[in-house]
Amino acid sequence: MADSKQIENSFERSVFTEFFTKIEIDNKNVRVRCKLCPPATKQTYSCALNSTANLKKHLQSVHPAAHDKLPTLKRSVTSSNGLPEAVAKKQKTLTSWTSNSVALLSQQHVNDLIMNFVIGDMQAFSVVESPEFIKLVTGLQPGKTVMTRKTLTSR
Ligand SMILES: [Zn+2]
C-alpha cells in the first residue's frame, strides 16, 4: 500500500534511526531495538510509525544525553506548520511553481494560447473583447495583453 510505505519512509528518515534499529514493520507499528542499550538487554520497543513518542520517551528516561541531541539531529520529519513532510513538500512545490511561472510566458505564447482556446473551443472571436476574458489573461500573465479581435481574425 502506498500509504503505509510512505509512513514507513517517514520513520526511515527520522532521527530515531540514529538510535534505534528497525526490526520489523507490523501494520502501522514499527518494532525497534535500542542501539544505546547494552545488547544483553535484548529489549525491543514498538511505536506507531507515524508517532515516535515512545522512542522519544525511552531516550528521555534512559539516555538523556541522546535525547538532548535530538533537536540538533532533527531532519525535519514534520514541517514547521505541522503537516506531514510529504504534504508540506507538495504545497511548497505548488507555491514555487506558481510564483516562478508568473509572467514567464512570452506575448507570442499568450497569443498562441488564446488562439488555441478560441479555435479549439469554438469560441466566438469576440471573446477576446470580453472584459472578463481580458481580466483572466492579464490576471494570469501580468504585463501581457490580449490580442484584439482584428489581430485574431487576420491570422
Ligand atoms: Zn535504550
TrEMBL record:
GO terms for molecular function: DNA binding; zinc ion binding. InterPro entries: Znf_BED. Keywords: Metal-binding, Zinc, Zinc-finger. Residues 11-70 form the BED-type domain. The keyword Zinc applies. PROSITE patterns: ZF_BED. This is Zinc finger BED domain-containing protein 4. It comes from Biomphalaria pfeifferi.
